[in-house]
Amino acid sequence: MGLRTFIAGWPVYRQLTGTDPLGRGAAAQSGRSAGLTARTETADRVARSVCPYCAVGCGQRVYVSDDRVTQIEGDPDSPISRGRLCPKGSASKSLVTSPLRQTTVRYRRPYSTEWEDLDLDTALDMIADRVLAAREQTWEDVDSDGRPLHRTLGISSLGGATLDNEENYLIKKLFTAMGALQIENQARI
Amino acid sequence: MAEAHPVGFQWVMEAKRRGAKVFHVDPRFTRTSAVADSYLPIRAGTDIALLGGVVRYILDNELDFREYVLAYTNAATIVSEQFADTEDGDGLFSGYDPNTDSYVQTSWQYAGHEADSGSGHTAKERDSAAGLRHESHGAQVHGQVQRDETLQHPRCVYQILRRHFARYTPEMVERVCGIPREKFLELARAWTENSGRDRTGALVYSVGWTQHSVGVQYIRTGAIIQLLLGNMGRPGGGILALRGHASIQGSTDIPTLFNLLPGYLPMPHHADHPTFDEWVDSIRHPGQKGFWGNARAYAASLLKAYWGDAATPDNDFCYDHLPRMTGDHGTYQQVLNMIDGKVRGYFLLGQNPAVGSAHGRAQRLGMANLDWLVVRDLFMIESATFWKNGPEVATGEIVPTECRTEVFFLPAASHVEKEGTFTQTQRLLQWREKAVEPPGDARSELWFFYHLGRRLRERLAGSPHRRDRALLDLAWDYPTHGPHDEPSAEAVLREINGYDVSTGRPLASFAEAKDDGSTAVGCWIYSGVYADGVNQAARRRSRHEQDWVAAQWGWAWPANRRILYNRASADPQGRPWSERKKYVWWDPQAGEWTGYDVPDFEKTKPPTYRPPQGASGPAALAGDDPFVMQADGKGWLYAPSGVLDGPLPTHYEPAESPLRNPLYGQQANPTRKVYAHPVNSVNPSPPQEHSQVFPYVFTVSRLTEHHTAGAMSRTVRPLAELQPEMFVEVSPELAAEAGLTHLGWAHLVSGRAVIEAKVLVTDRLTPLRVDGRVIHQLWLPYHFGYEGLVTGDSANDLFGITLDPNVLIQESKVGTCDVRPGRRPTGPALRDLVEDYRRRAGIVPGDRPPTVTTPVLRPAGRSDDGPREKGADHA
């Protein structure tokens, strides 16, 4: 190591001679941190996304390596958010990769005190059975004057404000065709 | 705003940097107050008194933007001589029907149109939350009206407004809201001085305004101010709703709501809309001005998108497949019906009512009385585990081995594990790309509902039942891809946009929708999002590469328009009001409207255009009628119909208040939706006895670090660490009065529940001097529940169920309670404590609070109605 390199290794020297007089950036950087590479730079791909929390609609860039989300950053191109995210948006990677997420179907039998496992395909079949039974038991064809009602008040649904427009469209379309009227979401509260 | 919408708040700070004055009105000093120029603490539930004071200040000092007001609002319109104001009715308008606690609106109409406009009796409108339909357009009135351009006629809207708000003086504002008059005048001065030809002012609100029994009228008062000051349809102006979920705007536009179909078409009512023609005519109201005149095309095209080949002009496009409303089918009515055993099955799709909805105990007792419950969420939420871990299990009200509800928990895909659009708070659709596959059994709602529908249709194939035709006729053939047969979100977006049925060509705009079955449009206001076969919502041109309007980022409904009613940014002759506030204007050389945004006007209709006699629909709009979705083309200072609790806002006390209304004998909103059910109750308010049992006012809101009912934040480690505990914030004065210790425990009691919280004593809450006495307010976050990394009691358990009559949104921003030091009791003793309070407060299960509290009842137009006995008793 030459004397010049040795001196240049002193943060105070870099602070006095370089472009960082306050010593809060390049002047203070260690050799180790200078050698690090951000995982955003080595990502396999980047998906352009939108924050899932409030309705401001901040732009997000979702970084993926080996088919796993490795980082979520604010999108600097967004005219809405200009690259910024709040504490919740900044925690989105922790949200989607949280170990607390449920990834299997859980089933609670009537009068049971515990959860059980259930196959997804079986669950879908069981739900379809129950929907058809509830419709049959509670169907109202006409009112007392013979005017059409064409509905069931035996089925309710709540939620939609966290979902995509395309999802809300299919939810409303299917429930309406089922005759299920009692469809509501967070906009009511 | 800095707390709940922090990144949006950067624009407020940007404006402040450029000289804007920022006012913050809130019961609690927050991160927003900390950087505002002026902070006004307010008694929760009194905003109409404050805003009404501003209206009076404007009118008294003639500070309205007169040229704008005359040309663009209904200030000059003459109202029926049958109309009587709250000034004469002690807080009731003419037309009040005490038998149904609702108004007959005939006397509110414009002169000469008493019989042919409005909705007449409004009890039915309340049950169907009809006010929500007006999210995209005004209510019905006839387009041709009598006007007095001098604004001197005693029955013109301008003079009615003056009389109505005359008593909202600075002294009254101080007396009602607890805001010192100097502070109020500072606000009124700044607002008016920063509005007009060269300047505009913006109003930003959130659920602090909507979650009240008079919530819609809060926003109406804001609208009156903004119209009087000429702040609508102009850059830097407007009334901006900051909504709380990523696509809550989208789920209102494409509604998962009982009373609406996509694009704010009403769900049919069994008695009012027995046929397709009657349904369509009730929407377009023949004779009115504006774009709702084309409602038949939007309606026919929606049914065509739903039922495809089966929908033809000959069968009214399968109109009889639609279910019919008969009354109130809203979420709170549903929960009471669950408790009464009327509902078999319940789907929860990313919503957690056990924590997020008012009266958590009613929510949980309802869910414990179902045949089956399907919960689709990212995490194991309180609404999935109520049968095991809910507070009612501890009190013995829910016994797991006796609870019959069968529960399916199906894991959902997160926002990065599916593609699709969110509509954010300014109507902007933004497409999200899919980053990764969802883990394990997790699936999108698109997948779940597509495949559930497919299975239902397979099982019903060949069914002889009439009831199954709507499912079997359904157009339900979306292309799928990938290992799980995920349906194509782009194909659904294309259907939402609409297409020509014979060629498949996506429509360029809703102007191309037809009423003959040749077009299918899933949501007419979104038409154009897939114009030219291009996903316009996926556009991401950098803000550095376009102007400040940023029209090439995403796509805004309608027609990619960023400011609604922007014709009003030009004067009646089509010239910008000022160079500084130039936005959209008429180019006489080119013969068209031009500017920075997509003009909200027919492109080549000149400012001088006057409609021919007898015109209706868009052709009836004059060249200087900027409010193109309104039935008379004007901004409404006075609402002759469409608002069920009055044509003008009036201060009523919240349903639960420690105070008698200082303005009128009528205490609370006389049309509020009340449920007399044994599980529900309202704490007594004056003139009832025993209001002192619940002497304190409490309010709730969000913390920056948590999200709604906590499912997306109490489960996330960094956020749970930042705000780890349920707490109640109180002033030092209240802490001394109630014996509370900083960082100690307290419990709060209402007529519904008792909850506990850690005490945070700060001077961010201040006792208010109101109507000669001191009112203490407490503040709570509403994010906590019994699941997740950090847990605590739920603030929403304290609230009962009382709703705004227009949109059926609950009053959950203000209630009354008692507060005591120490932890709450556990087990059955917990209910004993609540029962003791109920007994002392005289709460009788299933009882209705008195609705009318004034002996004055003069229902003009309904001479047969006498005063109501129960009201008179309490007056």
Automatic annotation (TrEMBL), chain A:
Region Disordered, annotated ranges: 72-93
Subcellular location: Cell envelope
Gene Ontology CC terms, in alphabetical order: cell envelope
Primary location: other
GO MF annotations, alphabetized: 4 iron, 4 sulfur cluster binding; electron transfer activity; molybdenum ion binding; oxidoreductase activity
Alphabetized InterPro entries for the sequence: Mopterin_OxRdtase_4Fe-4S_dom (IPR006963)
Alphabetically ordered keywords of this record: 4Fe-4S, Iron, Iron-sulfur, Metal-binding, Oxidoreductase
Cofactor(s) essential for the protein: [4Fe-4S] cluster
Protein name per its UniProtKB record: Dehydrogenase
Organism: Micromonospora wenchangensis
Taxonomic lineage: Bacteria, Bacillati, Actinomycetota, Actinomycetes, Micromonosporales
